[in-house]
Amino acid sequence: MGRRWLNLSTGLLSFAKVALGDPPFNNPPGVDVWCGKAYRETNSSFDPGGWLDPPTLNSGPNPLRLRLNVYPRYSFYLETEKKASFIVDTRVSDHDPYGKAYVNSTTGTNNETGPFTELVLKVSIGDTIAVDNVRVPVNSTGIEIPFDLDLAKLTGEAGPGAFVISGSSPDGSQTYDDLAQVVVLPERSDGGSMARLDHLNGGVHVSSSLTKGAWRSILPMGFYTRWDWISWLVDPDNNPEPPDLASNETISLQQYKERGYNLIHPVPPGGWASFDTAIFEKFLTICDELELYVMYDMRHTYLNLSSISYQLPRLQSHPSLLLYYTGDEPDGWTDPLNGTILAYNQIKEIDPYHPISLVLNCYNFYFKEYTSGADIILEDTYNLIKSSTFSTVYNTPCNRTYGDCGCDFCHINDTAYPEFVENPFQDVVERTNRMYQYQHWIGQKETKPVWGVPQWFFDADSFWSRWATRQEAIVLALLRINHGAMGLVGWIFPTSPEVESATTDLAKVLAREDVKRLLVDGKGHHLEPFNQEQDHENSSYDVAGWVCGDEMLVIVVWPKYTMPDGSVIALPTGGKNVTGVQVLFGDADWSWNGSSVVTKGTMPLEVSILKANFGGY
Ligand SMILES: *[C@@H]1O[C@H](CO)[C@@H](O)[C@H](O)[C@H]1NC(C)=O
Ligand SMILES: *[C@@H]1O[C@H](CO)[C@@H](O)[C@H](O)[C@H]1NC(C)=O
Ligand SMILES: *[C@@H]1O[C@H](CO)[C@@H](O)[C@H](O)[C@H]1NC(C)=O
Ligand SMILES: *[C@@H]1O[C@H](CO)[C@@H](O)[C@H](O)[C@H]1NC(C)=O
Ligand SMILES: *[C@@H]1O[C@H](CO)[C@@H](O)[C@H](O)[C@H]1NC(C)=O
Ligand SMILES: *[C@@H]1O[C@H](CO)[C@@H](O)[C@H](O)[C@H]1NC(C)=O
Ligand SMILES: *[C@@H]1O[C@H](CO)[C@@H](O)[C@H](O)[C@H]1NC(C)=O
Ligand SMILES: *[C@@H]1O[C@H](CO)[C@@H](O)[C@H](O)[C@H]1NC(C)=O
Ligand SMILES: *[C@@H]1O[C@H](CO)[C@@H](O)[C@H](O)[C@H]1NC(C)=O
Ligand SMILES: *[C@@H]1O[C@H](CO)[C@@H](O)[C@H](O)[C@H]1NC(C)=O
Ligand SMILES: *[C@@H]1O[C@H](CO)[C@@H](O)[C@H](O)[C@H]1NC(C)=O
Ligand SMILES: *[C@@H]1O[C@H](CO)[C@@H](O)[C@H](O)[C@H]1NC(C)=O
Whose CA is nearest to atom 1 of ligand 7? Predict the structure, then answer.
């Protein structure tokens, strides 16, 4: 989130950005753009470009393509580790431009033909075979195949740690190939943390002195935070006046952590070093003690590679550093298209141990280019706006090519999009889904996790209608999790007392060890609820479940302001019966029956977080 809060009391946190880097790359002279679109009344609409379309259907008699994707499970391994694994995806589809022709037929040893349902895999590096003759199902994802990590020290034709994969139909007539680059790093000795992505489940795993060297998965939940607030907390001698806060509560960083937030994302005030180095050092030391993870924001400086080189070495020995953040809505600002990848390469050269993130604000604007410089993609879709069709700030219509309504190409309450009238939170759902869909469209190999930025702020002078209510604040978070968000970083702390109390209650549940384990290390599924009264009529509940062993976490959201109609949700229990349901969050009553859980709706925007156990005793 950037420009929009210039008007706010937080305006002092703003830019410096303007002076840096190239001017927006695609606007006609004198035309201000957001997401590439003209938004001033005095300028007219033009096509901003950068729009990504879904791949078209393949043509011809055999339109199916199989894409073999093989990549290491973790973004890096340590030299001291022995075990590693590859993740294999074998998607088959008729609208994949990246795969290779697939015919569902293979010839057996007795010359009989049968369906081609298993791919025979071989993985090697140089002359050494890592995986031989392993059969994986065709059209599957997330198949894990272990290998000996020592082999990654070898050099193959494509370089050190580069494995060559060949897959074929059992008769050998159809072949597919891929390359998998395994990164092996030395163990750190400076006390700093190491954080890696789990490409199987999308989580972040961290290891440091705080975890006693073990890898621990985390579900990041916290806020972008005002630097004036943090400076005042950690350096009161130089900041005697408390900042003007939406909530006049003054809590310490320890209390922030105790509320269940495990992540903090200070918003840099500007300047070529992002933060006052001495105050930031004090802040990091407190975060180290609290095991409060830090998202390090370089929004004003990421285009200045020498500034990156200045900033990063100072952070390295702190175990609380979790990840970096470069572009803050680079697509909105139309930052140079090569900016995020240039910063990415610079950061990885200095510090290969932490992932790099950025937030996109636009609906569909140069997604491929901007996300090329990210390991983790955030979206900040703020749908609680005054209008999605007319900009009250700039006095223009808003549409695909023109205007800025605060939520790019959002359709809340727009009668031209009935689904978004019916479901006022559909913009958030759609955007989260699209951040994953676009990755498929561009042929992204390992899926980059998406994190959400819920609208936990209010700026009266701008596009926003009001503070989110308690229920809205929670719905904004849980809909994202149901659609695959692997982290939540709300804009902006301190927030309103009502939002803060809601997010605190939610954070306490998400921070539970069992909930985290299910959400980050379990397998997620979308579940189809149906209406209890009108047997099998579809229901508008948004439901997802995560399974681990005989436990399942279920998140149920009624994303409407109307009264919910009650629901039956069939859980994938593998034929077992539900033996117990614990309601971890929410006021709804739940009962269970066989492999289903059942509720009668009680209130608008109702949410429930359940833990179901199943088994057969
Ligand atoms: C765009 O609007 C600005 C004023 O906001 C004006 O100065 C400029 O001439 C306009 N440019 C075009 C191409 O209309
Ligand atoms: C296998 O079948 C094909 C056609 O069905 C035939 O032309 C071929 O001679 C057969 N080969 C053997 C070894 O039976
Ligand atoms: C191939 O054919 C088999 C048998 O008809 C079928 O079960 C399978 O789904 C097919 N696979 C694909 C990817 O079309
Ligand atoms: C491959 O699997 C997907 C997802 O399960 C399914 O929607 C699709 O129909 C399958 N493709 C083929 C060709 O069977
Ligand atoms: C916070 O305190 C200031 C000064 O006491 C007051 O002007 C302001 O209205 C208070 N804000 C809120 C949200 O209570
Ligand atoms: C870029 O960063 C360097 C510090 O490494 C600083 O001296 C320089 O002023 C910065 N450039 C801009 C345009 O801010
Ligand atoms: C990045 O793109 C800008 C144009 O936006 C260009 O001037 C610059 O040379 C490019 N830098 C590199 C290193 O490619
Ligand atoms: C959408 O409609 C609801 C109900 O009429 C209203 O409360 C809300 O403010 C509207 N939001 C927008 C963005 O138009
Ligand atoms: C968006 O609105 C502008 C101004 O009304 C109009 O000129 C333009 O054609 C519209 N664009 C689309 C895609 O409808
Ligand atoms: C109900 O859901 C199914 C599966 O999602 C869908 O195919 C069908 O069109 C829906 N029916 C109605 C009436 O919305
Ligand atoms: C599940 O419950 C039903 C009815 O209570 C019972 O008939 C069935 O045997 C149970 N199944 C298992 C696997 O326990
Ligand atoms: C469980 O399901 C059976 C069969 O659908 C039904 O008769 C029974 O009333 C249900 N029990 C509860 C507690 O919902």
Answer: 338
- Average pLDDT, stretch 450-472? 96
Angle, helices 497-510/513-521, rounded to nearest 10 degrees: 80
Residue 426 pLDDT > 60: yes
Please choose, from the candidates 343, 349, 359, the residue with its C-alpha nearest in 3D space to the C-alpha of residue 313.
Answer: 349
Q: Which of 18, 304, 311, 314 to mutate to test the pocket of ligand 6 (most atoms within 8 A of CB)?
A: 304
Contacts of 111 (CB under 8 A, 6+ apart): none
Per the CATH hierarchy, to which homologous superfamily does domain 65-185 belong?
Answer: Immunoglobulins (2.60.40.10)
Instruction: Give the amino acid at 41.
Output: E
**Helices 470-482 and 497-510: crossing angle, nearest 10°?**
40
**And the tokens for 510?**
């998400």
What's the gap in Å between 407 CA and the centre of ligand 8? 14
Provide Rg for the chain, Cα atoms.
25
* Structural class in CATH, domain 523-614: mainly beta
Q: In CATH, what number does 194-521 get?
A: 3.20.20.70
Q: Is the CB–ligand 12 distance for residue 591 below 6 Å? A: yes
Give just the sign of the alpha carbon dihedral 373, 378, 383, 384: negative
Identify the band that residue 4 occupies on the pLDDT scale cut at 50, 70 and 90: very low
The pTM for the full model equals 0.94
* Cα 116 to middle of ligand 3, angstroms: 7
Would you kindly state where each structural domain of the chain is located, as residue ranges?
65-185, 194-521, 523-614
Mutational test site, ligand 1, from 32, 37, 40, max ligand atoms within 8 Å of CB? 40
